[in-house]
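Lay summary. Proteins are chains of building blocks that fold into shapes, and those shapes determine what they do. In this project we predict the shape from the chain. Here is one chain we studied, written as its sequence of building blocks.
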Amino acid sequence: MTHQLMTSKNEMYVAPIVNRENAMTANNFEHISMKNADNTPLRVRRNGNTQTWKRKPDEFRIPVKYGLYEYYNITDKNCHEWTIVS
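And here is the predicted shape, written in a compact code that computers can read:
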């Protein structure tokens, strides 16, 4: 599944949505609706390994960091809100 997003120069591009398969290798992510002060998408980077569970094979958690002091988790519950940045 993909999302069509706009760049800061009003150019359209297609970005893949985070899922369990691509969550293992991706390092940079963008949020679909959260924006920075200059109206660019909120970009975060991986801050640790992807956590998975044997008893719950569909669930995962990716710790990510934004700026100096803000941290988020991309999980199977909110992964539809995030895209992968290449």
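What the prediction tells us: Residues 24 and 50 are 6 Å apart (CA to CA).
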